[in-house]
Queue: 4 jobs
Job 1
Amino acid sequence: MSDQSRDRADSSYTYTNTVGGKESKLARLDDSDPVWVSVRHLHMKDAIDTLMTDFGKFAQEHAGFSGSVYSSADRATI
C-alpha cells in the first residue's frame, strides 16, 4: 500500500438532489479537506459536536439549509 493511499479515505454515496433525482458522489478525506484536518484527531464525541456546531452555523447563514427538508430520521441515517 502506498503512503498516499494510507493517508486518505474514499467513500461513495448516493443522495436525492433538489429535483428528486438520484446522484452518486465520491467523498475523499485527505489533507486537502479543511474539515477533515480540523476533526481527524478529535475524540468521536468532540468531532461530532464540532461538526454539528459548524453545520448549525452554516444552516443559519444559508436559508436553503433550514433543516425543514429533513426529518430527524434522515439526520440519524447520515
Note: The mean pLDDT is 80.
Job 2
Amino acid sequence: MHWDGSVWISASLPGFEPHSIWGASRDNVWAAGNGLFHWNGSAWSNLQNIPTARVVWGSAPTDVWEIGGNVEHWDGMAWSPASFPVSGGTIALVGFSSDDFWAAGEGLTSGFVDHWEGTTWRPSFTGMSSLIFYSLWGTGSRDIWAVGICSRGTGCAYHWDGLMWTEYLLDGTAALQGVWGAVQ
C-alpha cells in the first residue's frame, strides 16, 4: 500500500510477500521478502538477480543493504556482494548511519545480533539455542531492542544500553514478531 497524502493506494506485486521496506524518498523505495523490488516513483521493478532477499535497510540512496541467501550492498549504481559473519537466517536490520547498523536473526546454533561499524561486523549478542530474533528497533547505538522467541517457546525482549544486553522474559506471550517505540 502507498499513502499519497490523502488516501491509501494499492501497490500490488503479484506473488511478492514483502517482509521489509526501506525508502530514501518517495521515488526510491526498496522492498525485500521473497525477492528484491525497487519503486522508482511510478512502477515497481523486480531485481531478478537477487531472488533470496529477506530484509533491506539503507542510510542513503547510495548505501543500501539487503540480506537473504547472500549479503549485497547497493552503492547507487550496482549491487555487489558483501561479507557477513553469521551463517543462518538474518531476519531484521536497523540502523542509524552508514557505519552504525545492526542485524539480527537465527544463527546455526542460536539467535544473534551483530553490529556493522563501517568496515567490519562485530558480534554483539549470541544467545542460547532455540532463540530467534524477529525484529529490531532503536533510537541509536546505545538503545537497541531485539525481540523474538526464547528457547522456552515464549516471547522475549532484549535491550542493549551500549554496554550490555538485558533480557526481559515475557512468560505467557507467543513469539514477538515486531517491535517499535517512540522517542521521548
Note: The chain has no helices and 18 strands.
Job 3
Amino acid sequence: MRTRCASILTLVAMIGLTLAARRASGQIMSVVDSPHDLSAGSRAEVRAVREEQVCIFCHAPHNASPVGALWNRSLSPQAYTVYTSQSLAAKPGQPTGASKLCLSCHDGTIAIGSLLGRSTPVQMTGGVTTLSQGASNLGTDLRDDHPISFRFDSTLVNRGTKLRDPSGLPHQIRLDNNRELQCTSCHDAHNNAFGKFLVMRNSSSELCLSCHQMGQTDITGHGQCSDCHQSHSAPSGAYLLRKSNVSETCLTCHSGTTPHASNIAADMKKAYVHDTASSVDPAAPANQVATCTSCHDPHTMTHGAGRAAASGQGSNSASFGRFGLISGVSASGAPMKVATAEHEVCFKCHAEGNTRPPAVARRLAQNNVRLQFSPSAISLHPVGTQGRSSQVPSLKPGWSTASTMRCTDCHGSDSGTSPGVHGSNIPSLLVARYETADRTSESATAYALCYKCHDRGSILDNRSFPGHRQHIVDQRTPCSVCHDSHGIPASQGTVTGNSHLINFASATVLPDRVTGRLEYRDSGGMTGECFLTCHGVDHSPKRYQAGFAPGLLQVPARPGPR
C-alpha cells in the first residue's frame, strides 16, 4: 500500500511539474483565476457571492443540455444582427455551434448565474446579473465583431478574399465539423496563456495572419494588425477599425506625434481636403467619396520604388510604393486590379463617372481627366505620356519635351507638410498658387504653379508667344483664360484649333462680334490667329508669329479697357 501511494504521489508530482512547465512556456493555463473563473474564490472582476465550483458556470456532470459538451446554460432566443461588408465574400448567418454557446454569456441577454442545473440563479457580487457593459458584452448586434458561423473553405479563398487556404491552418485554429469558423477558432475558453483566451500568440499578428493573407509592407506601424484593428466592438463597424472610420484610424499615427509618420492631420485641417468620407452621404457613388484606402493599400505599402511612368524633374517614381497594391484605371479606361502608376489611381475617381465640374468653365467642357491625359489627346500636360509639342522654350532646366509628370507635381500640400494629395489651402488642392480670376496682376506668386516648370523670364520676354506679356501683364489676363491645364481630348478638339492647351475660358472669352467666330487656328511654326472677343476687344482675327517684337503683334485700333 505504501508503495502504491508513493507511486501515486510521484505521478501526481510529475503531472504537476509537467503542467507547471507547460504553463511557464505559455502553452497551457488553467481556467482557475482566469476571467472565466466565476467562482467566489477567484480574483475575477465578475464572480459569485458563495458558489465555489469553477466549471459549473458552463458545464454540468448530469442533466446537461445536448447542444454542447455537458452544457449547463440555456441558449439565447435572440435574433442577431450579423456581420456584413462589401469586402466579405462569405455570407454569415445566425450564430451556430460553439459561437452560440459563447453568446449565452457574451450577448448580455441571459443572467450569468442562470444555470440549467440550478433552480435559482447563482448570485454574483455587486448585484451583477449579466455582462451589461465592457468589452466582454458583444450584444446582439454583431456587425462590429469579427464574422463567425460561416464556411471557411477553398471555395471562399478562391473568390479573391485575401484568405489563406484553410488546409494550411495551424493546428491551434480549429473549424467545426461543418468547416465553419466559430468563436472557438480564435479563442480557447479554458486557456488564457496568451491573453484574451486566444488559441495562439498574436503579439506579431501570428493569429490574424494564419487566416488573412494581406501582403507585405516595410512601413513602420503597418505590420501589426492590432494597431489599426480590433476584433470585437470596433467603433467603425464592418472594417473592425479602432476608430470610427478609415481616416481617423490612419490619423492616429499620421498626426505629427508618431516618429517616421507623415503629419497628414495638419493638411487634413486645411480649406481643401481630399478625404470626404466624414462629410459626404455614405450612399454617394464610390468615385465621389475618398478615404485613405481609396488611394493606399496600407497592408502592401513600401518605402521602395514602384513602377510609374514619370521621368521628369520632381517625378521620382519612388513615392508610388507608398500607394501599395491598390486598384486603378488604365489610360484606356480598363479597370486594373493593381495600378502601376500614380495617375491610374487618380483615374478611379476623376475619369468615367466624375460629376464634379472643372474649376474653370471652358468652351470645350470636359471633366473626365483620363480623356484629357490620353495619349491620343490633341494637347496635354504630359501625365503618364509625352506631350504633343516639340517646341516649349519656356521649360526650366531638368524638364524637356520628352519629360512626363505626375498628378502630384501640381496637386498636393501647399506647405509640403505631407507627401500626396491630402489637403491644401489653395483651391483644387494645388501645391502652389494658380490664380484664375480675371484681371489678376501678374507676379511670381500669382502663377507660382506655372512657374514651377515654366521660366517666368522666358514667358514675360515673349520667347514662345509674342503676346504673353501683353496678355498677362498689361491686360492682366490669367493663364487659365487661354490654357486648359490638363488637356483637350481627341474627341473634342482639333490639331489646328486646340494645340498648346488652347481651350478658352467661356466666362471671359466670347465670340468675335465682327465675324461671330470663337476659335484659335494654329498655322504651324509657332504662328496662328484668334477669332474672339476678350475684355471688349474684337479679334477678327488677330494674328501672331513667334519671335516678333511685341509691338509687331497685330492689335485693334482701340485698346480694350484696363
Note: Residues 23-212 form one domain.
Job 4
Amino acid sequence: MAEVTAKQRQKEVKDRKDFKEELKHQDERREEAVKRVRVTRERVLKGTGLREQVDILELGKEEEENTFFVMRPLTDGEFVEVQKTILGDISASSMDRDMKATDLIDREQRGKYLALTYALSIDNEEWTLEEIGKLPTGVPDKLYKRLAEISGFPRPTKPLFPPKEEQSG
C-alpha cells in the first residue's frame, strides 16, 4: 500500500472544507429562495388573475406566426362544476360494467370543454362550449393539459371503473 503523503492529506482536508463550505452556501441560498409569505384573503382571491400564454403553433397560417391562447387557472368552484359535469349522476351502485364507455367519454369531453370555457373567457371575451368544440383536433387537449398544470388539478389515484376481471372457464 502506498503511504499517504502530507500533501495528499492537506488536499483531502482542503477538499472536505471546500465541500462543507459549498453545502453551507447552498443552505443559505435555499433559505433566501424560500421566503415566507402570509396568505391573505386578497392574495388568494387574486389567484385567478394569473394569465398564462399557451403557444399553439399549429394554428399559425405562416411559419413565422407565433399563435397562442391566453388562459387563467380555474377557481375551486369552477373545478367542482367541471367535476359535476364529468361525474353527473354516477353513484357507486351505477358504476357497474354495463355503463357505456361512450357515455363516460362524452361526459369527460363536456367537462374538458367547460373547463376551457372558464379558463379562456377573460378580458370580456367569452368562449362557448360550441366554440371550443370547433377548435382543430388536438388543440383542446393541449390547452386542457396546460390548464390542469396551472390550476393544480388533483391526479386520480385509481381509475373510475376498475378493470374487468377475467373469468376462468
Note: The two ends are 70 Å apart (CA to CA).
